[in-house]
Write a structure and sequence with these properties.
The complex is a heterodimer.
Chain A lengths: L5 H10 L4 H30 L9 H37 L7 H19 L18 H4 L4 H28 L12 H33 L12 H35 L6 H16 L14 H13 L1 H15 L8 H18 L2 H4 L1 H7 L3 H31 L5 H27 L16 H31 L45
Helix pairs in contact in A: 2-3, 2-4, 2-17, 3-4, 3-6, 3-7, 3-8, 3-15, 4-6, 6-7, 7-8, 7-9, 8-9, 8-11, 8-12, 8-15, 9-11, 12-15, 12-16, 15-16, 16-17
Chain B lengths: L17 H22 L3 H33 L6 H29 L14 H25 L3 H31 L8 H32 L5 H26 L2
Helix pairs in contact in B: 1-2, 3-6, 3-7, 4-5, 4-7, 5-6, 6-7
Classes of the chains: A mainly alpha, B mainly alpha.
Bound molecules: protoporphyrin IX containing FE.
Amino acid sequence: MSTKTGKGKVIAEWIFTTDHKRVGILYLIGSLAAFLVAGLLAMVIRMELSEVGPQVTDPNTYNVMLYFHGAAMILGFQIPALTGFLANYLIPLQIGAKDVAFPRLNALSLWLFWMGIILALLTFVVPDPPDIMWTGYPPYSIISPGNTALYASTVLFMGFASIAGGVNLITTIIYMRAPGMTWGKLNMFVWTTLGAFIIQLVFVPVLGSAVIMLTMDKYLGTHFFNPASGGDVLLYQNLFWFYSHPAVYVILLPVLGIIFDITATFARNRIFNYWACVVGGVGGIVLISGEVWVHHLFTSGMPNWIRVGMMVSTLLISVPVGIMVLSLIGTLYRGAIEFKTPMLYAAGFIFLFLIGGLTGIPHAIASLDLALSDTHFVVAHFHYVMAVSGTFAIVGGVYYLFPKFTGKMYHEGLGKIGFVVTFIGANITFFFMFLVGLGGMPRRYFDYSHMPELQDLQQIVTYGAFILAAGLFITLASWLVGLFKGKKAEDNPWGSRSLEWTTKSPPGPGNWAEVPDCTDYDPYGYGEDR
Amino acid sequence: MEDSTTGHHEPEWEVSPWPLVVSVGALFMVPLAFSFYFVYDKPLMAILSLGIGVPLVIASVVGWTKGGIADIAHHGKEPGFATGAMPFFIVAEAFIFVSFFAAYWVLRLKAPNWPPAGTPEFGVTIPIIMTILLVSSSFTIHFSEHAIEHGDKGGFRNWLIVTIILGAIFFLLSAFEWSHLMHGGFTMKTNLFSTFFYSITGFHGSHVIVGLIIFLCILVSAFFGKVSKTFVKSASVYWHFVDLIWFFVVTQIYFW
Ligand code: HEM
């Protein structure tokens, strides 16, 4: 490779890279591509629902689009943007390491993820695309004419990437901290991501097994989920949610982590109750996450005494989450808050997460959930609590790190306008979606001729979605303007105390000329000068 | 990059083509080939996909191993974290088996009668022989690891070869048993028991193959005089894990 010069060399250095920062950036590009496609499909979905009767698609296409929207948003956008881009980029910089423990394995995760994206995109070219929603429940996924194997392989490629990435970064955090970097000096982002990776290691393999069983049942004629010969369809639901509920903590933990770091930086403040947050918050979530999955099956049939038990354990998880949100608010308290764009997103996140959390309570109460489950109410709930608030954290994180990983400043004015428009759009969309859900609109329905009275509300939701999309395009513009025309970024434009800002912007190979000594270091040591 | 003015070494961006190549290979080898064959009924295209995928994967495994050897040779770099990472990887692996066994237990305990109709009698000889083989191979890899720690390269190599032979016989026996059962009309499709029998032994078998490939990579590099102790140690931990899983397989599937 060294004989090549100029462009060829630069390209080779990017696509063959094993450097954690470049791997991270390539993760970001892939996940934003997934977000773009899945987001545009969401717009088509909204256009379809804006009026009674078929509008722009047909029922089968609707199913395929909704399949892609769900699967790509979760597996292709949020998880990779958080545990791929942010974690890869930040963790070595925050713990003072030159790279991750296994750089080549890291590149392997990256490219498996990209192959997963390609597999997901194949949905639009193959005959009989998968139409089984991102949950892939049997028996429909077994009798459907769609290509269930494509779904399974997408999940498996993304899953393998997650497992390899998890092993890699856990090892990095444990063994590669700079001298003097004790456990008490880790950024919140490092802690929360560590928690997320531990969850992934345990649960992703279960999801992998579930989709393998599904593929075998459909194409090799086995009987895992076939009641006629002693199998059980609910077995799939159990395995699936055994993974997919913890998966929301895989998303939530890094989200909270980056929000903590943004908040501490822009409020010039310490983390309120650091250890309570690490032990009670992150630790608590990791411990409890494994035993709440059954609440996704409240309506699938189970004895009442299990329902009650599961209800309690589900409400229990709000304790560690509550501890972390309290710390977050405490971090703002008496801070010298500076509302740059990343901080706006952090503030917006707190609001959205609050609404999402509060509307989760009726779902946790089994008797209410029997009515709400599978309506647009639950769709609105998880968009608030995970989809949109997670996207806010990711966008805020990209803004926060923009100067570091591009070496340029984004466009602050466009950034702020983009935030306001996105925030308004998101709230219109999903607030009115609650009302649509309470009105009885079932989830995953292509049409609602049986309840035409919902049309007005549905139209408001659709307008909101277009405002939301406009906001996201303004955000994109703020990045592109910054990338091509922005002024050069300083090494530490935010005046942060955290280690990642002591490198050059953007950092070169190896991050620092010498591994930093962290004996007198405190990522949140703002002390008196705030 | 040689800086001409100062003569200083600027650090270079590190690169390796193999992660990308192996991913592309895996894409063709597994999902595309599977979809062509089983979903779209196009065996020719499936063979073509395999024809693209398999060489890419093999080339990457070879290239990757070579790169690892070169690292040790040129920079004296030991991949120091492999032993630390192995336990985490094993946790993930274990949970694949946990899911399959959990499914098996749940469905089996619910079944009105067991084994379901169509299950032939299982002999005990083959599983006992297989157990003996695998347990001994766990010992031999341990001896091999022990030898390399004391700098005894010859002993290390011989014990490694013995391990590979034991593992290979284990695998052949398993294949023999499969083909025997399938000829007797007991296939994956037969009933719930066949479903679990083939999937669980198959998964375990695939781990045996992966273990054997790792051992071969170590052995070949050893012939070039390059041995990484951490690598041997991690491989041996992995092999003990495969052995441990076999205990579950043999007691739960064969003898219960
Ligand atoms: C860009 C703005 C977005 C809009 C307007 C939007 C809109 C929608 C709508 C209307 C549905 C329900 C359709 C139905 O049930 O018939 C839906 C489902 C869903 N959305 Fe979004 N969404 C957006 C962003 C996201 C994001 C960022 C995520 C990331 C996690 C996400 C994840 C999901 C999931 C998992 C489903 C459920 C799919 C299923 O039922 O299987 N969405 N979305």
